[in-house]
């Protein structure tokens, strides 16, 4: 929970864990969290067809589902805690 975080201005592992427990992204969403998902999909996982435009559309959804499928996660297109952890964790 937020009370156990140290205010140090660094988004480290504990901060990421607190963030991903409460932030979701899914088809139809837009904004900074979607841009973060898109950038990670494109730059870290080489989904080159994903544009970083902040709009969670068909291409982003397909990339999320592909990532989920290839990593043994529930394939639902929802970027919840497990998918966030996959996105921000160490690339296999």
Question: What assembly state would you assign to the polypeptide chains in this entry?
Answer: single chain
Measured distance between first and last alpha carbons: 28 Å
Strand percentage lies at under 5%
Element order, helices and strands? Answer: HHHH
The count of strands amounts to 0
Q: Count of helices?
A: 4
Radius of gyration: 13 Å
- Average pLDDT metric: 87
How helix-rich are the residues, as a percent range?
Answer: 40-55%
Structural class: mainly alpha
- What characterizes the major β-sheet? none
Spans of at least 5 consecutive residues whose pLDDT stays below 50 are: none
Form type: globular
Structure write-up:
The structure is a single chain. The protein is mainly alpha-helical. It is built from four helices and no strands. It has helices at residues 13-20, 32-44, 58-70, 81-88. The N and C termini lie far apart (28 Å). The mean pLDDT is 87.
Write the layout of secondary structure elements.
Blueprint: H1 13-20, H2 32-44, H3 58-70, H4 81-88
List the keywords:
92 residues, mainly alpha, globular
């Amino acid at each position: 929970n937020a009370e156990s975080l140290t205010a140090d201005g660094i988004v480290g592992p504990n901060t990421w864990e607190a963030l991903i427990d409460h932030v979701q992204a899914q088809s139809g969403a837009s904004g900074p969290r979607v841009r973060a998902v898109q950038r990670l999909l494109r730059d870290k996982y080489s989904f080159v067809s994903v544009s970083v435009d902040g709009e969670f559309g068909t291409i982003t959804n397909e990339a999320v589902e592909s990532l989920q499928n290839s990593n043994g996660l529930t394939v639902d297109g929802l970027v919840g805690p497990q998918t966030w952890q996959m996105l921000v964790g160490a690339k296999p």
